[in-house]
Design goal:
With about 160 residues, the chain is mostly helical. Among the domains are: about 20-50, no CATH class; about 90-160, no CATH class. Helices cover about 70% and strands about 0% of the residues.
């Protein structure tokens, strides 16, 4: 106890040891509340986990690389009319190309729904996606699809 009260600076300022809760407990003659330290440690661990999740994995992409990739994508898109000239595509090729965006969007939605990083996640979003697909198939308005799918996911999360 005497070592803690001794100033460690020449001007008489003491070094702070622990938080206010410990200082109050020492003045009162008791021990610090052990639950307080446990809560603080759990909060710090949770905050560290949150920071670790936000860190980029792998190497960051530079602005130069990003701009070059954007320019390459634009150039490929602009090359289509130049390569085709004034010719038209065959009807079967045109029909197949018309389905590519739909299939790509569906694949992206499915991956975003069930991807949990390194594992497959089957939670309330999966049935909500099924309800949304059913409503789209029945040609419901977009707002109805979104609201009913959100209500389905919310209801299933409330039940679970």
């Amino acid at each position: 106890m005497a070592a803690a009260a001794r100033p460690c600076h020449a001007d008489g300022r003491g070094r702070r040891r622990g938080g206010r809760g410990r200082a109050r407990a020492r003045r009162a003659g008791g021990a610090a509340d052990p639950r307080r330290g446990a809560r603080r440690a759990a909060g710090a661990a949770g905050a560290a986990r949150g920071r670790a999740d936000r860190r980029p994995r792998g190497r960051p992409v530079s602005w130069t690389a990003l701009l070059l990739l954007a320019a390459a994508a634009w150039a490929m898109k602009a090359a289509g009319p130049l390569v085709l000239g004034g010719r038209t595509l065959r009807p079967d090729v045109e029909a197949a190309l018309g389905l590519v965006p739909v299939a790509l969007l569906g694949a992206l939605i499915l991956v975003q729904t069930v991807d949990g990083g390194e594992r497959l996640v089957l939670d309330a979003r999966v049935p909500a996606l099924g309800v949304a697909a059913l409503l789209v198939w029945r040609r419901a308005p977009f707002l109805v699809v979104v609201l009913v799918a959100a209500a389905t996911a919310a209801t299933l999360r409330a039940i679970a």
